[in-house]
Specification:
The protein has about 325 residues and is an alpha+beta fold. Helices cover about 45% and strands about 15% of the residues. It is built from nine helices and twelve strands. β5 and β6 form a beta hairpin. α1 packs antiparallel against α8, α2 runs antiparallel to α7 and α5 packs across α7.
Length: about 325
């Protein structure tokens, strides 16, 4: 972003390197929404060669191209990280093998053979683990307290329990008192031929975690956990010190987050612009210029409020920490 440092003009496209390395843009002929970044003089360009002159389905593909590349980048990075380790931990459904005597789970009535479908935390997050390894990953990221709501499946019947897990300071984790079978964990050998399969699976797991976190935030809960550029810079610096694998995994996680945020139905984002195109298809004509500008301006205001809030969170954490 920012002032142009270097540029190269191809047959039709101009490529440029700019002064501020915090983001980028693609400006296309006929794309009025890019007026804040740059503009393209399309007065001498045939309308069929502009964004407005192509079919709606082609415009939708263009709007979702960035989101798609975010997800593909994450899949590639996770695939390479998993390949470098040579193994991937997966497993069966989270089925209760046994219970620790007098544990929170045993006291509320959870039994051997129950399948854990969902766990709801006090902060509003709800998780639906598909495997035992995912359940462990979900729980290990939880750092709050309060009761958990757990849904189990028993003989095709869904039963919900509520209990407060026991925190073990020596292990620095919360314990339900549920023991899973050793067969619940499976370590698969990874090679160049199957690494992308497990990279895809892990990316989908991260996506589900991100959706669960976003759903919690949209309920107005756990808002203090939001971070902006300042917080991300601090996290990246800390993660880079742990090693290259940790660093690129964080890049992949940020890429998944960007993909999810960009498909939200805010008109200033890619997902919102797709929504406007779908509305155009339904009503049979584009929205009026005035209506579109009003919607875009409202979206920009909402985003600026969000940027202010997350920046305030980041600065508060820095001062407090």
């Amino acid at each position: 972003m920012g002032p142009k440092i270097w540029s190269y003009k191809g047959k039709e496209t101009e490529y440029s390197l700019r002064a501020i390395p915090i983001g980028g843009f693609v400006a296309m002929a006929g794309d009025d929404s890019n007026s804040l970044e740059t503009s393209v003089d399309d007065s001498k360009i045939p309308v069929e060669r502009t964004l407005k002159g192509i079919a709606v389905w082609k415009r939708i593909i263009i709007m979702l191209a960035g989101v798609t590349m975010n997800m593909l980048l994450a899949i590639f990075i996770y695939s390479m990280v998993i390949l470098s380790t040579g193994a991937y931990v997966t497993g069966t459904k989270p089925i209760v093998a046994s219970l620790i005597e007098n544990s929170p789970a045993e006291k509320v009535g959870i039994k051997e053979g129950d399948i854990i479908n969902k766990i709801g935390f006090e902060n509003g997050m709800v998780i639906s683990p598909e495997t035992y390894s995912e359940l462990v990953s979900f729980i290990s990221t939880y750092d709050g307290n309060g009761p958990w709501t757990i849904e189990v499946e028993r003989d095709s019947e869904k039963i919900t329990y509520q209990f407060e897990p026991e925190y073990r300071a020596d292990e620095e984790r919360y314990v339900m008192g549920i023991v899973f079978s050793e067969k619940a964990i499976e370590v698969v050998e990874v090679n160049i031929f199957n690494c992308f399969i497990y990279g895809f699976k892990y990316t989908m797991f991260i996506l589900r975690m991100t959706i669960a976190s976003l759903a919690t935030l949209l309920q107005g809960k756990n808002l203090n956990s939001l971070s902006g550029p300042i917080g991300i810079y601090s996290t990246v610096a800390e993660t880079a010190a742990l090693g290259f694998d940790y660093y690129v995994s964080l890049v992949a996680m940020i890429s998944v987050n960007l993909a999810l945020i960009n498909v939200l139905p805010l008109p200033v984002l890619d997902g919102g612009r797709v929504l406007l195109l779908l509305i155009e298809v339904i009503i049979g004509h584009p929205l009026s210029k005035k209506s579109e500008e009003m919607i875009m301006n409202a979206s920009v205001i909402l985003l600026l409020i969000l940027v202010f809030f997350v920046t305030y969170n980041d600065i508060s954490r820095l001062i407090g920490g």
